[in-house]
Amino acid sequence: MSDSYFEEGSLVGVLTPEPLDRVLDYRAPEGGCWLGAFVEVPLGPRRVLGVVWGPGRGDWDPSKVRAVSRVLDAAPMREELRVFLERAGAYTLTPLSQMLRLATRVPGLSDPPSMRKIYRLGQGAPDRLTDARRRVIDTLVEYGGLGFTLKELADLAGVTPSVVKGLAQQGAVEEADTPRDAPFLPLDPDLPGKALTGDQSAAADSLRQAVRSGRYGTTLLKGVTGSGKTEVYLEAVAETLRVGRQALVLLPEIALTSEFLTRVEARFGARPAEWHSGVTMTERRRAWKMIGQGDAQLVVGARSALFLPFRDLGLIVVDEEHDSSYKQEEGALYNARDMAVLRASLTSAQVVLASATPSLETWANAEAGKYARLDLTARFGEAVLPEMRAIDMRAEDLPGQAWISPTLQSEVGRRLQQGEQALLFLNRRGYAPVTLCRACGAQVGCDHCDARMVEHRFQKRLVCHQCGETKPLPTACPACGVEGKMAAVGPGVERIAEEAARVFPDAKLAILSSDLFGSARALKAQIEEIAQGETDIIIGTQLVAKGHNFPRLTLVGVIDADLGLQGSDLRAAERTFQLMRQVSGRAGRAEARGLALLQTFQPEHPVIRAILSGDEEGFWRAEAAEREATGMPPYGRLAGIIVTADEAAAAFDLGTQLARNDAPLREIGALVYGPAPAPIARVRGKHRVRLLVKAPKGAPLQAAIARWLAPVRTSAKLRLAVDIDPQSF
Ligand code: ADP
Ligand code: ZN
């Protein structure tokens, strides 16, 4: 037999998602097993999930080696995915068992296949053929007798489930039981797409050619919002389907998926598989299986979709590639954009990084010729970028605790008169960031974190944005006990909405902030309402910056353009530049050029000036030059080390000890800074201390860090996390 099959009784090494630091030896069960097979193995008194990772090591007492309990009914994990997990783990310094956890987050993997009801064309004739009933029958005929779940069929036909049920009673539709994990409807890449414009079709041609090459390659697809990036990369998806491979599209927000699914359906005639936290357990299990069998051609998902067991992945699109939500900030600390490139390189796939405002890393990789670059220069349908102007807040006459300047007010007023929409943008959730006592000056903080509690007026509570703890709004000061002196200081979106309601009493307002929507569905409903023009003024956080099309929106007012520039973060300039350009891009359409107004106290700041002038390449070049001069990424490498302990002193002790014993780092020319309190020094009652390692570009950073940290003994009370390529510090 081949070396990927283990006969009954032979030794196999099984990797489990349990926190053990090695692959364990077992005996192959009756019937043998394949390399990569999903299995259940005994571990102490329990049975746990595992994957056959290779031959056993044979370094255990043979009489103590136990047998694999059973082989699960799932396609074995392919070599490509196993190597990807190993390499991604080595890059992020994450234990392999923890990487495996990312790839086995699927419910019911060990359950036997279960059945579900499907509906298909029956023999009987309905007594009365209403319009709705005809649509159901037409749909079933159109799909050549395929069966659907009740919901699928009702959705496809645009009827309520009761219509289908009615037809079933009369035998015109047949109910049948089939295995739950049914394949997805086939997507048709040859349905006509939109007629592309000149540079769109040139870009689509390049991507199609790249896909056909069957080799690895990464392309930056750059173009302002509305320039047709999505149309273009859907053509790359089409080509991938034509050559019989699978495609994955990563989106930064679940809120964007429904709009995207509708577009996929319009282009390919059916919906793709979805993979994100909003997908039900049953659907997840089905998607996971179908993806492994190659019966799901296209997957749309969040960053975790990168770890799905594709059978033959030919294309990964990372939409809004600069988005910080691609960085997983808990557990395995990985950046999905970088891991997409890694996975694609292992499976000879193409990567498309789409963005209006690429990350500096991606921009620099394109400059250096490591990535190809395609530019879409115009907005589709001649829509032009908005005019951008600063409002110098030093010259505006505003009372205390008010933030909408007279200049902005009059521009908003004009839009309302013309029946257009205005957006007021402030990247801060809640009502007020600070609640303080006017008698003693004390601010209300979280009991578990070194963070202020943020007032959320709609919830009538104070909320900690670090740990989620809430408290009622105090009437008396928790510090000095004086009654009636508590005051809200500074603005959040809720407070801007209150101000807007005061200034524009007749306008219809809507607030878009992630915490105000219990579900993706509620958010989607609100977004649709706005898109249909039922709102006059939108007040929003970062949530509005991303990809939604609001056709009547012609004015964007940024309440505090300086907000992101405070602090010393490496990416402060880059982030502010990206965010301001994205938000501004919401304004305007073909017939009416939009206007973006930035309220700022420092209109001469270089970043604000770059935003206003629109000289993007100039901004990137200046930012790149500064990073290069200081050896910062992408011209040097960084790693963050976070020590967490119950006692601040314990965290500092370990930090200090690490900083002193830095020989392994010095050997590769790296420097260590710190220990210093982490930006939020206490979260959920744990104290956090940070060290920063800075290394030259080509240095073997991970190996050096591994040697450096090897002697450290951690425990439940004293934890250590390594963050390679931290997003911020
Ligand atoms: P981006 O992804 O760059 O923001 P989209 O692909 O979403 O841009 O395009 C913006 C809007 O313009 C969408 O509604 C899209 O359907 C439309 N559009 C773009 N290109 C074309 C085209 N060639 N023909 C028709 N509609 C187009
Ligand atoms: Zn807290």
UniProtKB/TrEMBL annotation:
PROSITE patterns: HELICASE_ATP_BIND_1 (PS51192). Keywords: ATP-binding, DNA replication, DNA-binding, Helicase, Hydrolase, Isomerase, Metal-binding, Nucleotide-binding, Primosome, Zinc. SUPFAM superfamilies: P-loop containing nucleoside triphosphate hydrolases (SSF52540). Zn(2+) 1 binds at residues 437, 440, 477, 480. One of its GO terms (cellular component) is primosome complex. One of its GO terms (molecular function) is DNA binding. It is an enzyme of class 5 (isomerase). Component of the replication restart primosome. InterPro entries: DEAD/DEAH_box_helicase_dom, Helicase_ATP-bd, Helicase_C-like, P-loop_NTPase, PriA, PriA_3primeBD, PriA_3primeBD_sf, PriA_C. Initiates the restart of stalled replication forks, which reloads the replicative helicase on sites other than the origin of replication. Recognizes and binds to abandoned replication forks and remodels them to uncover a helicase loading site. Promotes assembly of the primosome at these replication forks. Belongs to the helicase family. PriA subfamily. Residues 210-376 form the Helicase ATP-binding domain. Binds 2 zinc ions per subunit. Zn(2+) 2 binds at residues 446, 449, 464, 467. This is Replication restart protein PriA. Its EC number is 5.6.2.4. It catalyses: ATP + H2O = ADP + phosphate + H(+); Couples ATP hydrolysis with the unwinding of duplex DNA by translocating in the 3'-5' direction.
